Amino acid sequence: MSEDSDFPIDNLPYGVFSTPGTGRRVGVAIGRWVLDLGAVLDDPDFRTPSLNAHLSRGPERWAQVRARLVELLTDERRRPLVEPYLVPLDRVTLHLPFEVADYVDFYASEHHAANLGRMLRPGQDPLPPNWRHLPLGYHGRAGTVVVSGTPVIRPCGQRMEHGAPGPVDGPSRRLDVEVELGFVVGVPTAPGESVPTRRFDRHVFGVVLLNDWSARDLQAWEYVPLGPFLGKSFATSISPWVVPMAALGAARVPGPPQSPEPIGYLREEPHWSLDITFELELNGEVVSRPPFAQMYWSPAQLLAHLTANGATLRTGDLYASGTVSGPNPGEAGSLIELTWGGTRPLRLRDGSSRAFLEDGDVVTIRASAPSASGGRIGFGELTGTVLPAVSRPER
Ligand SMILES: O=C(O)/C=C/C(=O)CC(=O)CC(=O)O
Ligand SMILES: [Ca+2]
Ligand SMILES: [Mg+2]
After folding, report:
1. CB-hemisphere CA count at 13 Å for 375?
2. DSSP letter for each residue of 323-382
3. Is-contact 144 233, C-beta < 8 A?
4. CATH for 230
5. pTM for the predicted model, two decimal places
6. Which atom belonging to ligand 1 lies closest to the Cα atom of 216?
7. For the Fumarylacetoacetase N-terminal domain, which residue ranges apply (predicted)?
């Protein structure tokens, strides 16, 4: 039922869906269908319009439900029980899969950090002196995390043009994307508690594709010394399907060497990463293939750092890896890198060229990873169309 799909039986990603005239509920994707968990399982956690109830239950329950779903979907004798609750994917509307509590964005790719350093801080070391000692990050805006398909309105704000006497206000002229992986936290922590790297699996339920839309002109003018603010807070898009960590066992690979050895709470044995390859598409054309495996800081190190000061985790917390950029040409996860600050525009097949995004542009991110049975699983699609700026009323 699931050949040639992003969603074979090894995947079983969770989402929230509705059909015309029915309320939102939780489902899992299998092949070209969504299994309506609210109907097929006798469990109120799935008759809710978000995944949060299930997220909060923890790894034993997550594993039980997954095992039950595999049984329901593979045992021929269960067919009559399951078939009435398989809804064709092309007939459902997919919604934001969980209520986003807090949203944090890291900066874990050495190649991305060094590229941005070279462009934004010429004459200095590409990496700041703290970069190899702790995973840098910033708190983003949870309330503007939107699901795939939601259009993104070009942001307005201040920019400072080179040599100009002062800043101007208006629509961003350097609207960009950032290809990232987002981690979805299930189990909360108590005040003062921190999560050691080895306890990552007790807290993180799964992953989503994430696009951290970024207005580079607003960002360049506002970000010193407090970091990203309005240049990124207008929208962050995530995919509708949360791929469970349980589906990514075969994707675990050794992480890249780290030097110097990280400080105590950031050590992990083994240092691991995920063999996920992304595709960034602009108006239907693949312009980059960023590889996740070489991210310097691992998913578990990011979580250990996020909680190292004793700040609590909440169910629905979302933390992102930071832009995924590999070392080779064609592996960068942002246009600012792919076009080197807009100086080398991309030539598209339709004859047009792009330094940054234009109104009407459609950005799509996909990804795949090895699966338990030797095939591949996908993450579905994360897409968004750029709409023109909304003009600001005069004061
Ligand atoms: O190098 C900088 O000043 C800023 C880089 C970013 O755009 C920050 C960010 O969102 C982190 C990331 O995605 O890796
Ligand atoms: Ca980012
Ligand atoms: Mg953003």
Report:
1. 14
2. ----SSTT--SSHHHHTTTTTSPEEPTTS-EESS--TT-EEEEEEEEE-TTSSEEE---E
3. yes
4. 3.90.850.10
5. 0.97
6. 7
7. 11-97
Residue 3 counted as domain residue: no
Does residue 150 sit in the same domain as residue 231?
yes
Other beta carbons less than 10 A from residue 224's beta carbon: 9
Q: What is the mean pLDDT of residues 128-132?
A: 97
- Token digits for 91? 């007939």
User: Does position 2 have pLDDT exceeding 60, yes or no?
Assistant: no
Q: How many CA atoms are closer than 13 Å to the CA of 102, on its beta-carbon side? A: 11
228 lines ligand 1 (CB under 6 A): yes
324/331 Cα distance (integer angstroms): 8
220 and 195, same structural domain?
Answer: yes
CA–centroid distance, 107 to ligand 1, in Å, is 6
Peptide bond into 260 cis (omega under 30): yes
Q: Are residues 299 and 373 in the same domain?
A: yes
Q: Are residues 62 and 126 in the same domain?
A: no
* Whether residue 112 lies in the annotated active site: yes
Same domain, residue pair 75 and 116: no
Residue 135 near residue 297, CB atoms below 8 Å: yes
Dist. CA 114 → ligand 2 center (Å): 14
Give the tokens for residue 306: 């996020």
Q: If pLDDT is split at 50, 70 and 90, which confidence band does 3 have? A: low
